[in-house]
Amino acid sequence: MESEVPIGRRVAYWRVRRRMSQQVFADRLGKSKSWVDKVERGVRALDKVSTLRDIAAALRIDHALLLGQDSRPVDVTARIEDVELIGAALSAYDIALERPTAGPTVPDAARVMRGVAHAWTSYQHARYPALIDLLPDLLAGAQRGHAHDPRAGRVPLVEAYRLTAALLVKLGETGLAWLAADRAMALATGDPVLVASATVQLGQVLRATGRARAAGRAALTAAYRIGQADPDAARLSLCGTLLVQAALAAARQGDDRAAAARIDEAADLAAEVGDGHDHHHTGFGPTAVALAGVAVGVELGTADDAIARHGEAVGRAGWRWLPPEHRAAHLIEAARAYLQTEDPGSAARVLLDADLIAPSEVRHRPAAREVLAHAADHPEAPSTIVALAAIVGVSRA
Fold it and tell me: What SMART domains would the database entry show (predicted)?
């Protein structure tokens, strides 16, 4: 529980989150650096309320946070009922069975599309709890809209299913994610662009369920199909993103040559698209491909290469243009690479950065929580990451 985290570790955790060195923090408090170090290590007790308030003011937090009285560890299981509502929306066949629906109003396609666009923005900013609450009604509205006007409602519903699959993969709900991706693929059939966009999420789901070979085949088929048409930035982005999916699938199978070939193909397309775009919610560009190269290295176990690529990728101008979700997800992959090289300090640093950029990416994703637990469990783990793990409520023990 968070209340069991020593106050000194809390101080260290928040100081690092505020990007202050011990010396800068000490100067703001009118204390010595040695005093700060002893507080953070638990050698010196903090038993004066006035001192706690001064520290909280310097850290720009409520002093109750230092005492563990104002916030609770993230409890992922508390969201289970809400995720089940998404499952219920996906499993509803009221329209096909001509049952009366709870929402008789049929939203027009433009309104549904605005709702889907808003939901994609929430996803890209890693606002997962809010998105979980939003999706059941969004899915129901998109389904009613498509039933009322199949032509105008097709794209919004495919996008709603894509988004649902993407979120559910993040949350480790792969069974429901597969249902959403399958719905998107079935609805997209006949439109190469829609099929390509739906296949992006299908590839994620297949890899998450241990079907890397099938993921690679689907991604390559859709990529080459969309690539045969007259190229524009949007189609190139889809094609390139699918090639990235194929690279990750190949890496999952240990095929380093195929993974490298797909990354090279994607890089060629990315050079034509450029950074700073988000066609079909892919964020595709040279920086995205560079980050994918890191993920491929982590999958293949070539951690030193992955770390070198990470340093180059985050130094690109395009790094700051990527959505918070994308950047935080990458930093979690970088943490995996650092842990493979027994460097818990660097793993802690990038995990803290990820938590600062997009807290839900670290705190709600089971895969990210596992990385955090692994980092905190290392014998040489910094106190800051141990504190974060305790606050989040994860442990490998």
Answer: HTH_XRE
- Indicate the number of domains in the chain: 3
| CA atoms of 163 and 53, how far apart (whole Å) | 43
- Whether 318 maps to a domain, the answer reads no
pTM attached to this predicted model = 0.81
How far apart CA 114 and CA 207 sit, in angstroms, is 30
Using the Cα atoms of residue 25, residue 31, residue 32 and residue 34 in order, give the sign of their dihedral: negative
Question: Considering the domain boundaries, does residue 132 fall inside one?
Answer: yes
Residue in this structure with the two tokens 């985290």, named with its chain if needed: 5
Same domain, 129 and 199: no
- Do 103 and 137 sit in the same domain of this protein? yes
**Could you say which DSSP state residue 379 is in?**
T
* pLDDT 10s digits, 375-385: 998 888 888 89
Asked whether residue 361 is domain-assigned, the answer is no
Q: Distance of CA 13 to CAs 340, 349, 384, Å?
A: 24, 11, 4
CA distances from 95 to 106, 144, 145, 148, 153 (A): 12, 7, 11, 10, 14
pLDDT tens track for 37-81: 888 888 888 877 778 888 888 887 766 667 765 444 444 444 556
